[in-house]
Amino acid sequence: MIERADGLRVDDSYYYITIPLHLEYKWAQGHYFETFLKGLKQGKILINQCPSCGRHQIPPINVCGRCHVEMGEWKEVGPRGTVFAFNIVVDPVYDSGIPGMREVPYTVAHIILDGAPDVTIYHELEEQDLSKLKVGMRVEAVFKPEKEREGLLSDIIYFRTVTEPE
Amino acid sequence: MGKRVGIVAVYQTKYEESKPYLHIHDLAYEPIKEILKISGLKFVGDGTGIDAAIGASQDHWDGYAISSKLYQDQIGGHLRPESRVRGDGAVAVFYAAMSILSGHYDTIIVLALAKESQVDGRLVESFGFEPNYTRMLGLDFLSAAALQAQNYIDKYGISPEQAALVVVKNRRNARFNPVAQAPADIEVQDVLNSPMLSSPLRELDTKPTSEGACTLILSTEEKVKKWTSKPVWIEGVGSCYDSSFLGDRELAEPRSLTSAALQAYRMAGISDPKKEIDVFELSEYTSYQELLWAEGLGLCEKGDGGKLVQSGATEIGGEVPINPSGGLLSGVPVNVAGADRVIEAVLQLRGEAQGCQVEGAKVALAHGTMGPCGQFHQIIVLRRGY
C-alpha cells in the first residue's frame, strides 16, 4: 500500500461492497400507449393530434401539455421521414431493453415523419458512415418481420436511407 | 399564522387494488380534470387561476427517475412551475401551504398518486434501508412494523385483539366511504384468523395493495373566500424526523409524531387536542400503528392505545373519532395516504363525509408518515371556516 503525503491511498485498497439493484415493473400502458405500441405491431406509426392547437405527439399521451385538453384524432404517419438531427454512439451504454451493454457503434436520430411536421420520433438509422449522414436526408422505417413483432419500439429495426426523385 | 391558507377544492379517485387499464398519465389526469371542473379554475399565471403545481410520488414505485415527468403535462406543468415531493402527499400539502404563505404563489394544485400493483412493494420499501446493513439482511417495512408492534405489545401489554378492533372499526367505517377500496363487515376473529405475515402482524393488520390518486387546490384566504362558500383553513402544521437506524429509536414511542403534533397544536392554538379536535384522519400502515399514533398525538396516556379503541372513543360517534373514512387499512396507496387524510378531513369539516360524517366537526387533524415504523410525521390541523 502506498500512502500519499496527505494520507490518502493511491492504490485501490479502499473497501467497497457490491450493491445489487433489481426491480421489475409490470407497467400498465393505458389506452394511448396501447394504441401506439399495437400500431407498431401492425407495422403502423400511429400518433395523436391536439384538437385545440393541432400539434402532434410522439409518443401519444392523453393530454396536450400546452393546451391542457384531451388529445383527439389518431392518424397514421410515416413510414418515411426526414432526418432532423443525428449522432453516432461509440462509447458503449447500458440498454435496459436488452438488458445489457449495447454494441457500438450505432446511429441515433430525431426524424420528422411525413404527416407530422411539428414533432420528431427518436430512433436509429441504418447508416453508420458519418460522411453519408446529413440533416435533411430522407429515411424510411424498417419494421421487423410481422411474426417477430412484440408491440414495442424495437418492432422498428431502424430507419434506412431512401433515394427519392427530386 | 398571520395570513391564512385554505382549501378551494378536493377530489379523490376510487381506490382499487389494481387499475390495469390506466397508465400513470391516465391515473394523474382523471382527478386533475375533475378538480378543474369542480373549481372552475384553469392553469393560468395571471392571478385568476392556478399558479403552480406540486406532485407527490416516488421514483422506485413508479419505475422512473424523477417520475413526476409522468404527470407534468397532466398537472399543468408544461412551461410552468412544477415540483415534486418524493413521498407522502401530506408533505406536498405542507409545501403548498408554505409556498402560499411566502407570498410567491397564491394558488397551488397538489396531486398525489401511486400504482402499487406494478412492482413488488416490499422490494421497493427495502430500498428505504441503507444498502450495506439492514437491506442486506432482508429488512422491509412490514418486518420493521412487526418489530415495532411486538415491542409495543411487550412494553405495554397491548393485545392482538385490541389491535384487531382497529381493523374492524376502520373496515366497517369504509362501508360508508364511496372511494374506499375494501369496506368489510368483519369481526375481531376474522383479523385473528387471517394469515400471519410477519409476527405479530397478520394480513388484515396491514394496509392492502392499492392504486389511486387524489388532488387538492389550496389558495390564499382572499381567493378561497371568493371561490368557495365552504372554506376550510389550515390552522397548524408540524413535521419531524426520527433516526434512520431503527436501533436508535424507541419503536413503541412515536416521539417524532409527538414533536410534529406539538408544533401543529401550538400554531393552531390547541392546548387539549382531545377536547378541541373533533376528528382525526391518521396514516395507519398497521393496526398497531393507529393505537401508537393516538398515544403520540396525546389522545390517551402512553400504553393506553388499546384501552382507547376498546372504549369506543375512536368510533365515529366517540370522543376522539379516528379514521371515520376507513383509513389506510381499508386501502389507500402510499404517497396518496397523507393527502387523502387531508381530503377526508376537509370533507368532514364541510359536512360532506356522507355516512362517515362526524356530526358538527369544526376542527380536524390529518396525518401523514414516511419511513419504516413512522420515522417521519407530518401533521396538518384544519378548521371549518363558515
Describe the 3D structure:
- The complex is a heterodimer of chains A (166) and B (386).
- In chain A, the strands form four sheets. In chain A, strands 10-9-6-11-12 form a five-stranded antiparallel sheet, with no helix packed on it. A three-stranded antiparallel sheet of chain A has the order 2-1-5.
- Chain A contains one helix and twelve strands, in the order αββββββββββββ.
- Chain A has 166 residues and is mainly beta.
- Chain A has one domain.
- Chain B has a domain of 135 residues: Thiolase/Chalcone synthase (Peroxisomal Thiolase, Chain A, domain 1).
- Chain B is globular.
- The mean pLDDT of chain B is 97.
- Chain B is built from 13 helices and eleven strands.
- At the A-B interface, helix 1 and strand 3 of A face helix 1 of B.
Q: Strand count, sense and closure of the main sheet of chain B? A: 9 strands, mixed
Please provide the count of β strands of chain B: 11
Corresponding CATH superfamily of the domain at 5-120 and 209-227 in chain B: Thiolase/Chalcone synthase
The low-confidence runs of chain A, each spanning 5 or more residues with pLDDT under 50, are: none
| Overall pLDDT score of chain A | 92
* Distinct helical segment count of chain A: 1
Shape of chain B: globular
Strand content of chain A: 25-35%
Structural Rg of chain B = 19 Å
Instruction: Give the N-terminus to C-terminus distance of chain B in angstroms.
Output: 18 Å
Query: Could you state the order of secondary-structure elements of chain A as H and E?
Result: HEEEEEEEEEEEE
User: Nearest-angstrom radius of gyration of chain A?
Assistant: 22 Å
- Helical content of chain A (DSSP H or I, runs of 4+): under 10%
Strand residue content of chain B: 15-25%
Give the ordered list of helices and strands of chain B. Answer: EHEHEHEHHHHEEEHEHHEHHHEE
Count of DSSP E strands of chain A?
12
Placed side by side, the strands forming the largest sheet of chain B appear as: 3-2-4-7-1-8-11-10-9
Oligomer: heterodimer
